[in-house]
Amino acid sequence: MLKFLTNLSLFLFIIVSVEGQVSEQKDFQSPLKIPLFLSGNFGELRAGHFHAGIDLKTLGKIGQPVSASAGGYISRIKIQSGAYGQALYLTHPNGYTTVYAHLDHFIPEIEKYVREQQYTKQSYEVDLMLPQNKFVFKQGDLLAYSGNTGRSGGPHLHFEIRNTSDQEPLNALMFQFPITDNISPEFRALVCYAYRNAEANAIQCERTMINPLQKLNDTCYTLKNQVIVNGTYLGVGAEIYDFLDGSANKCGVYSMKLYIDDEFYYGFSIDGVSFSVSRYVNAHMDYDLKTNQGKSVHRLFGLPHNELSIYQSSDRKGIYPLKDFGPHKAKIVAADVYGNQSTLSFTFRRKPAEADEISVPEIKYLVDWDKGRSFEEDGLRIDIPPRALYQDINFNYSVKKGGEGVFDDSLEIHEDSEGLQNSITIRYAFEPPVDSLSDKLLFGRINGDKQLVAGGGEYADGVLTLTTRNFGKYVVYMDTVPPKITWNGYDAAAKTINLKITDEFSGIRDYEGYIDGKWALFSFDSKSGGLAYTVDEERLEKGKQHKMKVIVNDSKGNQATYIGSFTY
């Protein structure tokens, strides 16, 4: 009997979440010593990826102690000017790895080791893989302090739990952290996609967004009117967000299920998403509504090219065939990890046959998602490889010649409302006004905010070539302006020199800093442009004036140099 109870206890200890319920897994504790509130959760729809962790609030400031969520060893330390900023990876004997990102600084022994590696490699950005016996910690041991480094929108701790074997991020909320959530997901809109056939594609689709919704109570939503479908197949999506107690931040929903005539038809749950397929978020969500309107709309049907494994379906595609003209009932059930649910119920029917017409534009350039296609005209060549698209599209492009100005031509490469999984190649034959400046040429792209941003590209043999994962409007541009370096003072108390480096167009490519002619460690924050040097007492002589030199290059090789001095 004792052996049976022991095995039963072990079984209960390792149960993983089922149907949105938080697991009994107790291996992990909170990495923070303050009450946990979220500003972001796992699986949120982000630009080109699902959010891979949970974002823990740190009372709006940096410097909160960050401790080991479980015992283990530091297996990786990665320092970047963008992305995760300063991050630690702690590998545990239970088969998981925890990640702590956007950190401000580490405990002294880790800080010292990292600094030595940065000086050895003469690089602020390092990716260090460590042996098991280098830094070993028990659960609750201090590791670092929270910050706002990398591509962070404000002070917080980004925390992940991954499978160690394949580094696939898992939904950390399924591991029983002390987070309170009594709030059900909130529906904002229903989105209906009428199709003429069972293969969802952009050519024969009529999209309708229905809002506002009628809210019957805190968890039940419905529509005022019946949905009339102008097509023979229906795809359903919904704009929806989740909220947690103590936070006004919009978070992502964990699961959604579509029922038609009281039978389950299609659904998904986001327990984990590998980095190798995370970009398929562009096929899961309505890419156009996300990129151009900021709306998080989950599709409850599959586009042809979508390799995510988060779905459950009674029909492989999720497109519902309208075989009759009678009404049908539909219900979407959305849930968060903690089991809070909301429902959206509505009825729909197909338009009468005599009115059943979807406006289909003339198909000039059909591109199959699994075949790709190439186009060439007026000095422009576009290569779309197989499987770059998520669906078949009615492709359009044009070269609009400008006036007599050298840079007046514009290239329309389809619409930015269509996402790409893999890169396309754009080549444009162009003669620069001065041959010696040909290495300064690049493409500029008009983004969703109608701003001109750097698109990249390299010029050779009379052709400007760009590999990109963005459709849209491009122009040929020339960047001859060097970066700008601004002195922001010396903080004597912190013993830190502060500069700011910015570039007008193509962006900062690299920088080097020297003190008294020797390479020095300058940290760079890509979001703010802040460049900082903190006095290294082991490497800098005290009580004298020191010369400083900073060299900055942009992506087109334009260079700026700053020379100054300070006393320490």
Number of strands: 46
Question: Helix amount, in percent?
Answer: under 10%
Q: From the helix content, strand content and strand pairing, which structural class follows?
A: mainly beta
Largest sheet geometry: 11 strands, antiparallel
* Tally of discrete structural domains: 4
Beta-strand share of residues: 35-45%
SS field, number of helical segments: 4
Mean pLDDT: 91
Q: Identify low-pLDDT runs.
A: 1-24
Quick one: overall form?
A: flat
What is the terminal separation in angstroms?
Answer: 72 Å
Rg calculated over all Cα atoms: 27 Å
Question: Please, could you describe this protein's structure?
Answer:
The protein is mostly beta strands and 568 residues long. The chain folds into 4 domains: 22-175, Glucose Permease (Domain IIA) (Distorted Sandwich), CATH 2.70.70.10; 186-355, no CATH class; 365-478, Chondroitinase Ac, Chain A, domain 3 (Sandwich); 484-567, Sandwich (Immunoglobulin-like), CATH 2.60.40. The chain is built from 4 helices and 46 strands. The strands form 9 sheets. Strands 1, 4, 5, 6, 7, 8, 9, 10, 11, 12 and 13 form an 11-stranded antiparallel sheet that branches. Strands 16, 17, 18, 20, 21, 23, 25 and 26 form an 8-stranded mixed sheet that branches. The radius of gyration is 27 Å and the shape is flat. The protein starts with a helix and ends with a strand.
